[in-house]
Amino acid sequence: MSKERSPRGANAGSKTTTRLAPHKSYAAKTKDPLRRPERRNASGNLIAPVGQKNFSNAKALPQHALHLERLLPELLSFEQPADRVVSRYFRAEPQLGNRDRALIAESAFAILRRKNEFSQFASSGEGSQPRRLALLGLLSALSEGGLGSANRMESAIADLAHVLKPGEYEWLQRFATIDPATLSPLVRNNLPEWLWDAFGTYPGEDSREALAKCLMRPALLDLRANTMKTTREQLLAEMNALGGRYQAIPTPYSPDGVRIMGKPALQNTVGFKAGMFEVQDEGSQLLSYLLAPKRGEMVVDFCAGAGGKTLAIGALMRSTGRLYALDTSERRLANLKPRQARSGLSNVHPVWIDSENDAKIKRLAGKIDRVLVDAPCSGMGTLRRNPDLKWRQTPTGILELNEKQTNILASASRLLKPGGRLVYATCSLMPQENQAIAEDFLAKHPDFEVIPAAQALKSLFPKDVLPLGCSPDNPWWQLWPHIHDTDGFFGAIFQRKAAVIEKKLPAEECAPDAEKPKKTKKALK
Ligand SMILES: C[S@@+](CC[C@H](N)C(=O)[O-])C[C@H]1O[C@@H](n2cnc3c(N)ncnc32)[C@H](O)[C@@H]1O
């Protein structure tokens, strides 16, 4: 699952701002109440809405509820990833401005986050079921999604009043007075039964409710300062100088992280276009420190996707050495291209592979200093960002992923030189995708040993007794949304032993030109 995506809601399919016309005027102008003309000034530029410079204090309008009603059937069929459904919908509705998109997307994701609770309440009340869900989604986006001026449900209902039909105001007020303790655990925690049970086993009954509650909230919006072009301090100063209704603060753990308090659209900013930053969860930023790449090294990002981690790794390498970004998805690798261009990195080499056994990979065997396997996984650590996954994933699906994870890790391990570092990572919270895969790998690969995460990270967090995400009981690295306010991540660090590799590797894998990047470059063409 791809993890570094645009912040839900705020930037989903963002485009140039259009005027939010009052309901009556656009309804009068067009037959379709959802299609209203763009408003432009004499120079042909889109007219910015008066008094609404950014996404805070978004104003819900009747058409927002109508768009949600249209979007919901496909979204709730769970046939496609929610972000794809929403992006496609926005492409088909080019008249929608940034704020419209932000509010519709945030409401849609709120409905996915709290599907059990909203569906139970919406089984009775005013209007159609989609209309009821749409109103609950808007209410959630305005009160908890960072889009409204109100952070209490009662005031958000008042903000929605002009959108409501007779009876709906009282209906929403009834919703606001529900005591969650009266709801069943599956309803109040908005999880499918299999996942609620799984969280009861791990992390355990004491903490599963705290985890589930955290996963019902929208994710934070974190940026990684691109140190090839700026520093975190400069980025903080520049973001705060823009004067939007948000605040930029340093992230608590990642040295290059900037947290945006608010929901601005960033994709049209000069800083984004100039490659000063990438949107990246703080936990994902930290993962590159497990790999700890050095200048001039040969590095492989085995499951690079659209390159969220590739770009962070490339910056740590100061654009030196060679960084292969492999992936089986052409679409995802294509998305890496513009990000790479913005980043200013010249050491990144995207390579499409047909599988983890592609012949191109065999040619790199034994030549690489560091390999990251950011494996395809259930994505259960990203449910704040991708809430549809909890309804789309199944225990059988996770079993299928386990086989893939095992095979990819085994194949990737062949790339490493003696003494080279291998990092296995997921954004899953499920031990069968994490610890179990890492332990199985160790058992089957005696030429590898574990480097405890606490040892690898200690220089990064010198003030802590144990570095962030490390445990005194095991060598793995794990971040939890309800503890660290990041996405959930798992990391295992292995090192290829020097002595065993010479005996174990087949002759063709111990290529004599192992340290000649030029030959390797040809080999991958
Ligand atoms: C968790 S995502 C990677 C996210 C990416 N590292 C990032 O930071 O944006 C997993 C990726 O593994 C890729 N993948 C799936 N099967 C693969 C295989 N057999 N070999 C390499 N990559 C694979 C998927 O296309 C997907 O992009």
UniProtKB/TrEMBL annotation:
GO terms for biological process: RNA methylation. Residues 211-497 form the SAM-dependent MTase RsmB/NOP-type domain. Residues 1-41 are annotated as: Disordered. The active site is at C427 (nucleophile). Residues 29-41 have a biased composition (Basic and acidic residues). Keywords: Methyltransferase, RNA-binding, S-adenosyl-L-methionine, Transferase. InterPro entries: MeTrfase_RsmB-F_NOP2_cat (IPR049560), MeTrfase_RsmB-F_NOP2_dom (IPR001678), RCMT (IPR023267), RsmB-like_ferredoxin (IPR054728), SAM-dependent_MTases_sf (IPR029063). The keyword Acyltransferase does not apply. GO terms for molecular function: RNA binding; RNA methyltransferase activity. Gene3D superfamilies: Sun protein, domain 3, Vaccinia Virus protein VP39. CDD domains: AdoMet_MTases (cd02440). S-adenosyl-L-methionine binds at D327, D354, D374. Belongs to the class I-like SAM-binding methyltransferase superfamily. RsmB/NOP family. This is 16S rRNA (Cytosine967-C5)-methyltransferase. It comes from Polynucleobacter meluiroseus.
